[in-house]
Design a protein that fits this description.
single chain; Endonuclease, Chain A; DHBP synthase
């Protein structure tokens, strides 16, 4: 290791690094179980291995790649960690950092990021600037960009959204261009709270008041008659608009500071797998986005429930984590839920998520019932069985699909979950993302 006088070796940092030779923390142990024995595409990682004068959490010497995990103490040791990273990168190592909570809450996204960076290093490509950094853009900068008609990707509890000023035709048109999205597919409008939402609906029924009180902020979008100030591009020319207040601190901070409606579909190319981390957005849209606000992995992982309150009876246009039973309990009236709504590509859909092909990996993906598993050709293929509860499965589904998609497999086989209320949203996504076996 060369001695660079411009980058001093911090003795406090070195003492902390040597202390890392002890027993691994729980998050470190969990990740090690998935990286050991060349389980990640044959790359050999070592745990708490010496790298120069440091002890790295994980290192792949073959790629000169270091993976570090940060816990609650990172706020105190941020300067030392920064110097540590600077020294390692000066000596030719690529350092990728994650939060401990990411390992527990969305390990598939962590593995996918490590895999993608490993492949880029193996192929001699320049690495991404900073996989999964927290707070990539400033809030003030994000608000200014929205007011200038630019695109800002931001986290919600469901998926990452690609946001633009919903009152500006020019800004909204950029969403459709960046995604390659047909103009017949409407967008959800995100707001900070009920008081803002009321500005953009011409009628606010008692049912909306009840639902907002029960589920906002949260993964429920309500469809109401729209105000003229909302761009017709947002609604595909229809006279109704879907409104939602997301349950994510960073999203709410953005929306409160902007103090207006933000149209935001998922921040990915149209019909592809939705993004649940900032890295997914970077991989998918790159420079098409003017700023990305990184709030870590999404807690819910699939898109919001969309409920139409302009129909004769409340009608679910897209299933999500807010179920029909939950809505009926609040409204004290039956809720209509058509199965498998399909919108023609050349006609204005009543809500997002109604096209026959949606949420799809680029790898050919097939759904199967449990009794069909014996028929599967597993050569150069992966199987996603139902081994988790519905909420956990939903949270990890898109990250798992993206991880598998990156491995250039021949096929992905996805077990179809039971046709029950708790699985309805996941089943809807799988039905649109796959072909029958």
């Amino acid at each position: 290791m060369s001695n660079n006088p411009h980058v001093p070796l911090d003795p406090i940092l070195l003492s902390r690094a040597r202390a890392m030779r002890g027993d691994p923390a729980p998050a470190e142990h969990k990740l090690w179980q998935l990286l050991r024995n060349r389980q990640l595409n044959g790359f050999k990682f070592r745990r708490q291995a010496p790298v120069g004068t440091f002890i790295a959490d994980f290192v792949c010497h073959e790629l000169k790649m270091v993976v570090e995990l940060d816990g609650e103490s990172h706020g105190v040791t941020e300067r030392q960690d920064s110097v540590r990273t600077q020294i390692l990168e000066r000596d030719g190592y690529r350092v990728v950092r994650f939060w401990n909570v990411d390992v527990f809450e969305n390990v598939d996204a962590v593995l996918e990021t490590i895999f993608r960076e490993a492949m880029r290093l193996r192929d001699g490509q320049p690495p991404h600037p900073s996989p999964l950094p927290r707070g990539e853009g400033t809030m003030q900068g994000a608000v200014e960009l929205l007011r200038m008609g630019k695109l800002v990707a931001f986290p919600t509890e469901t998926v990452y959204g690609l946001g633009a000023d919903a009152t500006s035709d020019a800004a909204v048109a950029k969403i459709f261009a960046a995604k390659g999205r047909p103009g017949t597919n409407p967008l959800i409008v995100h707001v900070a709270d009920e008081s803002v939402a009321r500005r953009y609906a011409t009628h606010w029924p008692e049912s909306a008041e009840r639902l907002v009180s029960a589920f906002w902020p949260g993964p429920l979008s309500i469809v109401l008659a729209k105000a003229d100030s909302i761009s017709d591009l947002v609604t595909a020319g229809r006279k109704t608009v879907g409104l939602r207040s997301p349950d994510h601190a960073l999203a709410l901070e953005l929306l409160r500071a902007f103090d207006g409606p933000v149209a935001a579909p998922s921040a990915n190319r149209s019909n592809h797998v939705s993004p649940t981390t900032a890295q997914h957005v970077r991989d998918e849209l790159g420079d098409a986005v003017d700023m990305i606000l990184d709030g870590g992995p999404c807690a819910v992982g699939i898109e919001s429930t969309i409920l139409d309150l302009t129909a004769d009876a409340p009608t679910i246009l897209r299933p999500g984590s807010i179920t029909r039973e939950m809505i009926e309990e609040v409204l004290e009236t039956p809720v209509h839920q058509p199965h498998g709504m399909i919108a023609a590509i050349d006609q204005a859909a009543t809500s997002p998520g109604q096209h026959a092909v949606h949420y799809s990996p680029r790898t050919p993906a097939y759904r199967f019932d449990p009794q069909q598993q014996a028929q599967l050709d597993c050569t150069d293929a992966a199987i996603l069985p139902i081994t988790l509860d519905a909420d956990t499965y939903a949270r990890q589904l898109y990250a798992r699909l993206r991880l598998l998609d990156a491995q250039q497999l021949r096929a992905i086989y996805i077990e179809l979950p039971p046709d029950t209320e708790e699985w309805r949203a996941v089943r809807d996504r799988i039905m649109r993302a796959t072909k029958p076996l």
